[in-house]
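Bench notes, afternoon.
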Amino acid sequence: MTDRIIENLKLDVEKGVYQYEGPIYQLVEGYSVSKADLEKSPLLGHLRKMHAKIEIHFNCKSYPTVDVPFLAVSNFEKLIPRQYREEVKELLRRIGALGLHLTPDRVHVSEGQITLQDESKTETFTLEANQTMGEAEISTLKNIRWPTLYYNYFCALDPESDQIYVKIRSDVFRKNRTDYLKDKIEQLLGKIIDHIASMDLDIRGDQWKVLSEDEAISFKMVDENLLEINNDHFPTATFQRRVVTMTDDQGRLFYALEEDMDPHILRSINSDRLVKVAAVKDSDKFNALKSVLEATEFFHKLDKACESSGKSKEDFAIIVKPNFMFMYSTKDPSTYTDPALVEYLVTAMHDCGYRNLAVGEARSTYGTFFTNREVKTVAEFIGLKGRNYRIIDLSENLEEFQYSGKLGRHYVNREWKNADFRISFAKNKTHVYTYYTLTIKNIYGALPMENKFWSTIMSGTSFQRP
């Protein structure tokens, strides 16, 4: 039961009413589920769809509203170009109190029932009012759109002492890198507003207190695997909710609801296809590659493509695209495609009569910060000798090209565009945004500009290349 808007859900904190009737999902195995799992048909084996009717009435005790403000950074005028200064100042005066404004309530259930129904049976559960406590909030978050806001929250309850502890942390999630051409004033406001804010609120009976950094309670995680719901249907990040148990410095047990954000979006996009992935393992890496070539009938497909082109093997243009421009040390080969395997593949094609062979890579962001990061320099450094093939820099010899999708009009290396056969020889490695990189990410690396994000942002915009 998770979404931006949940139909048939009524929650009125001030009137003390929680009502819901509709689908609910039982976790048959494990403790974790994602929104993408709930949208799959048929459901995955660890889920079972049921019908729920929930009606809870409760009494609330409200506490004063707590403000967690976002303030302008000191000396912010230095960050604003002169022509925008007065406009930004005026907007700051009109925006008002940026930040989180939270009104907490202690909840005591007066009565409540939960009815669960599936194909075989109906069960009704009655809440034990004297053993039930909770916390509810009415909160408002005031923020400008740029940058994306990071938000972490948890609310911990100790039923034995009737204590409630709310902790909130906020920061900048990212600078909205895909919105490069967004309104300049909004970007300036985003830069001068300090989004780093925190709050520790301790509620005990009628007493409540916002704690200082020195007074804040330090909790120790006991079990973080009670329940985890990953809302992965948002465009910018995965919004995670989970139920955990923790202890404070006195060993008292708290149950907590935690909300956090993760920049990784792991769902498939517009695809329900299942694919099989095979791995060939061998202590001899050359035997492993040979087995892959045989299992995939690589040379049969290569010969067939050459025959279809009408060209001879000597003229048939083949480019191998490895991944090596983020190599930073030969002592750590995990970051780049093994050059010995690349040369093994090229030599095998050469032995089959193919002569128009090349290994191509494009420059990476490292080239904007360091010298000697040209493709041919790095290739030679890692051991690509170019004995029976050429090494080409995909960031040179460019022409305009109309790509499909969001990239639009951009640039492409002429040899890469005109090749008869392209081979993506990727490195299976971890990645900060996508967790791992395979051939699609490797082909993305063929874009010619050093800063690939910039390539995506500037598509369709006129700019000069040397």
